[in-house]
Design a protein that fits this description.
Blueprint (H helix, E strand, L loop, with lengths): L9 E3 L10 E4 L2 E4 L11 E3 L3
Length: 49
């Protein structure tokens, strides 16, 4: 599975996500995440890239 297969999936933020940092858990792995629009902990987010 490549990271490209994750695009479009909806995930829950494990930590707040902003333009500098954040964490998500998807497909059995923890990933770093960033977003131009702040996302709060436990909010849903869609993987765009």
């Amino acid at each position: 599975m490549g990271k490209e297969t994750l695009i479009g999936k909806t995930v829950t933020a494990l930590t707040p996500i902003d333009s500098r940092s954040g964490r998500i858990f998807v497909e059995g792995e923890y990933w770093n995440a960033v977003s131009d629009t702040p996302i709060g902990k436990d909010e849903q987010a869609e993987i765009a890239g």
